[in-house]
Amino acid sequence: MWRARLVRILGDFGRGTRRSSYVSTLDFRDIPTPKRLPVVGTALSLLAAGGASKLHEYVDKRHRQLGPIFRDNVGPVTAVFLSDPEVMRSVFAQEGKYPLHIKPEPWLVYNEKHNYTRGLFFMDGDKWMHFRRIMNKLLLKGDLAWIEDACEMAADLILRRLLFYSEKGAEFPTWKKELYKWSMDVIVSVLVGADTYRQSREDIEPIVEILASTVQAVFETTSKLTLLPATLAARYNIPQWRRFENSVTAALKSANEVVNHLEEKYPKGDGLLSRLQEEGLDKADTKRIVADLILGGGDTTTYTMEWMLYLIAKHSDVQERLRGGDKTLAKNVLRETLRLYPVAPFLTRFMPDSATIAGYSVPAGTLVVMSIYTSGRDERNFKEAARFFPDRWLRSGAHGCVGVGVQQASLPFAMGARSCIGKKIAEAQLQVTLLKVVKEFQVETLNKREVGVVMKMVAKPAEPLRLKFTRI
């Protein structure tokens, strides 16, 4: 019945028709909902699907059952889930002046317990808008060649380590640790400028090593609190909470020490720190902004790089083409990787006002969850959606996209006022590093079976990726 109702209202849903042709608005309670049990609701269904680590698959299954919009609970909160690209874009158009999103509960509990003020990700209202405008100006607009230079420097460092182990005939040890180090190299190089980092590498690298290890620990300990109510974990001070709390304290301390060290020893650098000073930020605000930039970029770029290398390892033809230094292809490999393996499979917004979404009246304050894992793998958006095909992103023709444009059907960095502030940094570091690695190495995967996805704060490989680097 729900399917006939949607077809009547939306016409040829999911195939590029405009949503402005609604003939009526349906009640919020009419949104399709999975069958629920008394008290526990759909919790048992989620557990049967694999629990929180398989939330993306559970939601994807629900979309296939119920359609591109359904209503379900996220813990005690009722949420509306969306997978249609144009409807998701309509949410961003109605997100308001000060968009609100879900923040990780363990972090909120930590911030409250320690009276700790965080950066952009945790800010709201006028305060958020003030600092967001400054960061937009510095990281998203104008000539950003200085960011690419910083990423080139960091890519050279990890490539140098790859070459060192290759020449010794040894396997590349502690791969995940090295990727976190590379990610922190990028951020610190962005902070002081590529030239300053190159000239002072012996002084800066030791503090980056410490920073990388503490950031990695935060990710690992946070992911272990996924299934536990953070408020209760903190109240009873259980071991998982203590490990998380200690890791966050160490990471924030490390991030602040890095900023202090860089500002003290390299006040004339040509990176983000000096630019923030020129914008009038004081030291406290600078530390908050930079700490969030550091903690937000560690796991996201680490796992995206892993997925990229895994995919090109399975597609030697794409890898061979990359060796020509084709920047457009590198960009499209990244886009295709994030379509298939978005590190954040869900985008969230709390609707500031009542809104019409996909023909339904949605009350103010409702949590809307945009399922970009599903939209990126939907055959209504992409032909052969499960296929890794970077050329589908070429502007010269409709390579594998149906109905809506590929730009609309994959939104790994979100869009609108609260889109990812580190987007340009992440894009540059991933593309630059990919091109440098394939120029020197043939990358192969030793995994015998297809590697799945699990949710551990971000979408990560379900088993360790075994990558082999052979010098060309």
Write a structural description.
A hairpin with a 2-residue loop joins strand 1 and strand 2 (77-82). This protein has 19 helices and 10 strands. The chain folds into 2 domains: 1-97 and 352-411, no CATH class; 103-344 and 416-472, Orthogonal Bundle (Cytochrome p450), CATH 1.10.630. By secondary structure, the protein is an alpha+beta fold. It is globular and about 65 Å long. It has a 4-stranded mixed beta sheet, with helices on both faces. The chain has a two-stranded antiparallel sheet with strand order 4-5. InterPro entries: CYP11_CYP27_families (IPR050479), Cyt_P450 (IPR001128), Cyt_P450_E_grp-I (IPR002401), Cyt_P450_sf (IPR036396).
Strand order of the largest sheet: 1-2-6-3
Strand coverage percent: 5-15%
C-alpha Rg (nearest Å): 23 Å
Structure annotation, total helices: 19
Average of pLDDT: 86
Low-confidence stretches: 1-23
Fill in the keyword field for this structure.
monooxygenase activity; Cytochrome p450; 472 residues; single chain; iron ion binding
